[in-house]
Amino acid sequence: MRFRPAWILRGDMSSEEGSMVPQAGLEIDRISKRYGDVVALSDMTFEVRPGELFGFVGSNGAGKTTTMRIALGVLAADSGTVRWAGEPITLSTRRRFGYMPEERGLYPKMKVLDQLVYMARLHGLETNAAHRAAEDWIARLGLRERRSDEVQKLSLGNQQRVQLAAALVHDPEVLVLDEPFSGLDPVAVDVMSQVLKEKTASGIPVLFSSHQLDLVQRLCDRVGIINKGKMVACDTVDALRSGATAELVVHAPQAPSGWAAGIPGVTAVSQADGRTVLQVEDFADDQEILKAALATGPVHEFSRHRPSLAELFRNVVAEEGSQ
Ligand SMILES: Nc1ncnc2c1ncn2[C@@H]1O[C@H](COP(=O)(O)OP(=O)(O)OP(=O)(O)O)[C@@H](O)[C@H]1O
Q1: Architecture of domain 245-305 in this structure
Q2: Residue 5, C-beta contacts closer than 8 angstroms, at least 6 positions apart
Q3: What is the pLDDT of residues 14-34, one digit of tens each?
Q4: How many angstroms from the chain centroid is the CA of residue 8?
Q5: How many Å lie between the centroid of ligand 1 and the Cα of residue 281?
Q6: pLDDT for 91-132, tens place per residue?
Q7: CA–CA gap between residue 139 and residue 227 (Å, rounded)
Q8: For the domain 5-241, what is the CATH code?
Q9: Of which family is this protein a member (predicted)?
Q10: pTM for this one?
């Protein structure tokens, strides 16, 4: 599968952004960051719009955590700006963000309720309001029976629920979550997904990173694929998938190797167990392909295939890596 250049970004987001954006969201604007000789981010640019669930995907070391830390202001960029609602972020803006750091950051010996009350107080809630919010999120995230346990005595999945509660307890205006789904069981994934959807429905922009691409494909309004510190593709999953060169799966058990060679606009990707996967350009004539397949014997399947986000991701990373 190959990609048309329309959605492969090369440092200019202007064609990707529409004019219908109601208000500015969380804007990451040409952020660069080096660690010594390592270029972690290079002109990283994208926006998470109000009410949008934005999935941030990339290989290990691509720069997701660095971007999120800079967005939160816990790490300084070498250049570039992060804005929320049109204004550069400040210490007081940061207090209105909810953050789930990759390294988590709960106090292991603190009890769940005390932990959440403490977090809420840190973000400026009064004692009573902090207690109410902590109890609400404990109930909502299924942690009632664990509320008096030390965090270190919880399972990893439950610790993650507490971490999510800690990101939400002060009713943030923006959510930035670093791999919130990692290590969760299917029920906890559903709880997490539901909470994120509710938050976006109330107008909050949510940025989260994940290596679980099936989940990202299912949940997100838009996806940003990053590679080596750069945004290389950013759009809805549907737009990304429709921008990829289509594939045809042909099950013709008697077809010899190379049976489709020479048909204009067609490239064989694989052929095994009687099943051939072909890449077909827009101008390729699928009836001609079908005729060629039938000429070899019976055809049991002839179907178009839309690449999954995981396939798109592998392809983008391979393409960009080869440049
Ligand atoms: N404190 C640091 N000192 C030196 N290099 C760092 C530091 N933090 C990150 N890096 C480097 O910056 C690059 C980006 O790392 P980052 O953690 O942002 O990637 P990531 O996309 O979050 O990866 P992962 O999916 O593995 O969590 C990597 O090359 C990493 O080794």
Answers
A1: 2-Layer Sandwich (3.30)
A2: none
A3: 334 444 445 789 999 999 999
A4: 16
A5: 37
A6: 888 889 999 988 777 888 999 999 999 999 998 899 999 999
A7: 39
A8: 3.40.50.300
A9: Belongs to the ABC transporter superfamily.
A10: 0.82
